[in-house]
Amino acid sequence: QVQLQESGPGMTKPSETLSLTCTVSRYNINSGYFWAWVRQPPGKGLEWIGSIYHSGGTYYNPSLKNRVSISIDASKNQFSLNLTSVTAADTAVYYCARTLVAGSPIEYWGQGALVTVSS
Amino acid sequence: QSVLTQPPSVSGAPGQRVTISCTGTSSNIGAGYDVHWYQQLPRTAPKLLIHGNSNRPSGVPDRFSGSKSGTSASLAITGLQAEDEADYYCQSYDTSLGGAKVFGGGTKLTVL
For site-directed labelling of B48, which of A78, A98, A101, B42 has its Cα 20 to 30 A away? Predict the structure, then answer.
């Protein structure tokens, strides 16, 4: 069973960059699949942020495309999220996940990490 | 505002049947993309409940079923149990604005 675990600062200042890392266990990230980030503001619904293929190809939510980047470090079996110029509206629980292309479901989820944007 | 539309809440008594609708458009569900459903218990990550419109992953009780028609999909839960009280989300893919996985706004199921 694939396991995913988010890590990173629980608080980020407005206008700065939010950075999170997801460590994947029990599956070699180079073996395939897309590795994704999804967020959920407190009390609200889910929003897909984007995903990266094991070879490095990326797909981003058009609404966040100008501020988001996802990268992969296969040597550590990790992938990371950077979200620039954050505001209070970016406060959310951030989930890392495993999925496939386009219309596929999200099979495995991390437990989630709350990131609060506040000065 | 979510791309897919779900009712904010539904409720039912133990043993009853409830349905949750998910309405999309011609750029997502109506374009032929599959609909998937997730169950989110309080303070936990979402869990895949139905994939490919009507398929249950291993371990999901057959009390849960999904269907799709045109630009809409539905999740049905029969024999309602107290442990089913949770938030439910539908998900598909939208081709507008470059393409993205999209979710419904979520439906809170209350077991009376």
Answer: A78
Chain B hits for A65, Cβ within 8 Å: 98
Q: State the Cα torsion A24-A17-B45-A70 to the nearest 10°.
A: -40
Spatial separation of the C-alpha atoms in residues B27 and B4, rounded to whole Å: 11
Contact check, Cβ <8 Å, A103/B38: no
Contacts of B91 in chain A (CB under 8 A): 46, 105-106
- The beta-carbon neighbor of B33 closest among A103, A107, A109 is A103
Task: With CB atoms and an 8 Å threshold, state whether A105 touches B48.
Answer: yes
Q: For A3-24, what is each residue's pLDDT tens digit?
A: 999 999 999 999 999 999 999 9
Between chains, do B91 and A46 touch, taking CB under 8 Å as contact? Answer: yes
Tell me which residue has tokens 């539905």: B74
Segment A54-93, tens digit of pLDDT: 888 898 988 898 999 999 999 999 999 999 999 999 999 9
CA B40, CA B110: separation in Å to the nearest integer? 13
